[in-house]
Design brief:
There is one protein chain. The chain is built from 14 helices and 10 strands. It is of the alpha/beta class. The chain folds into 2 domains: 158 residues, 3-Layer(aba) Sandwich (Rossmann fold); 180 residues, Dehydroquinate synthase-like - alpha domain (Dehydroquinate synthase-like, alpha domain, Up-down Bundle). The strands form 3 sheets. The chain has a 6-stranded parallel β-sheet, with helices on both faces. Strands 6-7 form a two-stranded antiparallel sheet. A two-stranded antiparallel ribbon has the order 9-10. The N and C termini lie far apart (42 Å).
């Protein structure tokens, strides 16, 4: 499974080799308005002549079937076949949506991901999850489909503003909390003061790959990766529907505090560990703002969480720092209580 990953200075040369493989017919690059401007120029020297650029609007608001239709229309209009390649250049929205478009187009178009945000490099582009939002629900439609390759070059992180970089860092912290207590201890000292992101990205990717390798389609251990996401997705979806959108990583950071608190309530985590988690996350992330009276409505959106089984809301919690535990049943009342706890901090 690791053969499709290329990291560091060898990533873009590996992309060139893939795109010039005999039998490749056409190449398209899918980018959003930001990556077309900031990242595409650095990618161009590694692309074959005659490739096509497909540009979509930037932002979670456009992670929809309507945007997919625009991509499919352009591929169809220009005669792309199953021997063509779609290169997805962007953050999680582009890699999720582009992977989804490629998986469905003619039952499977060759696809290569070039993630440009920290969140996409350590999480969204790793493991073969694709999808789009539907009626405000995060990644409600999607398939598991590994790309032909993921080419990770940390030079693209220089194009990010500090807020986007922090958002990606949330997924790194999540990997520490579910699987690597030593890395969390070290990360608490370093924070976002990172001179070279490549070792950090490599370590985080290794954690995710180790989990995905055990469970590619999320029937068991891969659910660990959803720590912070039951509450986080509900919060992100609610605020998006209210026109108060926040970044995915910001929602996950809040979700991790809520779900760490739930872990304490369930007798899995001690109060000292919760305090360490809260203190560290609040040194990096600003508090997500919502009104106390909104907590039940936010919690209600967790009914659509993909980990649920029937009426049971399954959550990933912590048995300790560095040890996640999945399939922990929680009630809507408990989720709302965790949001009230967060609101009071």
């Amino acid at each position: 499974m690791t053969d499709y990953l290329h990291l560091g200075s060898a990533a873009l040369p590996a992309l060139t080799a893939l795109l010039t493989r005999p039998g490749t017919t056409q190449v398209a690059v899918l980018a959003d308005g930001n990556t077309a401007r900031l990242c595409y120029p650095a990618l161009q020297p590694h692309l074959p002549a005659g490739h096509r650029l497909i540009e979509i609007p930037a932002g979670e608001d456009y992670k929809t079937l309507e945007t997919c239709q625009r991509v499919w229309d352009e591929l169809t209009e220009h005669g792309f076949d199953r021997h063509s390649v779609l290169v997805c250049l962007g953050g999680g929205v582009v890699t999720d949506l582009g992977g989804f478009c490629a998986a469905l187009y003619k039952r499977g178009l060759r696809c290569v991901l070039v993630p440009t945000t920290l969140l996409a490099q350590v999480d969204a582009a790793i493991g073969g999850k694709t999808g789009v939002d539907y009626h405000g629900y995060k990644n409600h439609l999607g398939v598991f489909q590994l790309p032909e390759a993921v080419c990770i070059d940390t030079q693209f992180l220089a194009t990010l503003d500090p807020r986007e970089l922090r958002a990606g860092y949330a997924e790194i912290v999540k990997h520490w909390l579910i699987a690597d207590a030593d890395a969390f201890a070290q990360g608490r000292q370093q924070g976002l003061f990172v001179d070279d992101w490549l070792p950090v990205v490599e370590q985080s990717v290794a954690v995710k790959q180790g989990i995905v390798r055990q469970d590619p389609t999320e029937r068991g251990p891969r659910k660990l990766l959803n720590f912070g996401h039951t509450v986080g997705h509900a919060l992100e979806s609610y605020l998006l529907l209210q026109g108060r959108a926040i970044l995915h990583g910001e929602a996950v950071a809040a979700g991790m505090i809520c779900e760490a608190w739930l872990s304490v309530q369930k007798g899995l985590l001690d109060a000292e560990a919760l305090d360490k988690i809260e203190t560290f996350l609040f040194t990096v992330f600003e508090k997500v703002q919502f009104v106390l009276l909104e907590t039940e409505a936010i919690a209600e959106l967790a009914r659509q969480d993909k980990k649920n089984q029937g009426e049971i809301i399954n959550c990933t919690l912590l048995r300790g720092i560095g040890e996640g535990v999945y399939d922990q049943p929680v009630t809507l009342a408990e989720l709302a209580a965790s949001l009230r706890y967060y609101h009071r901090l």
